[in-house]
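Kindly draft a polypeptide, keeping tokens residue-aligned:

***
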Amino acid sequence: MIRANPRVKQKDIADEEGISKERVHHIATTVLVNRKVSVRWVPRQLNAEMKAQRQDIMYSTLKERYNTGGEAFLQRILTGSDCTRILGPPLRFSM
């Protein structure tokens, strides 16, 4: 059912099959190894070719954006270490 219509809702599957929404979620995520992305169920497994294709697209997109925006584009990119400077030190709670 998910493969036929990736936008199907868990509630609709549960109603049609006569099982709980929790069971539908378990089957979709554990047995079929899918995950919910936006409003669609997408298979979680990517093979090496798919990963390489995504990496190629990412590199070409970044290269194109850099060629268009130059150093200004690089200054807008945040890395994990930059985020801590913007957000500040972690909060400490006393008990």
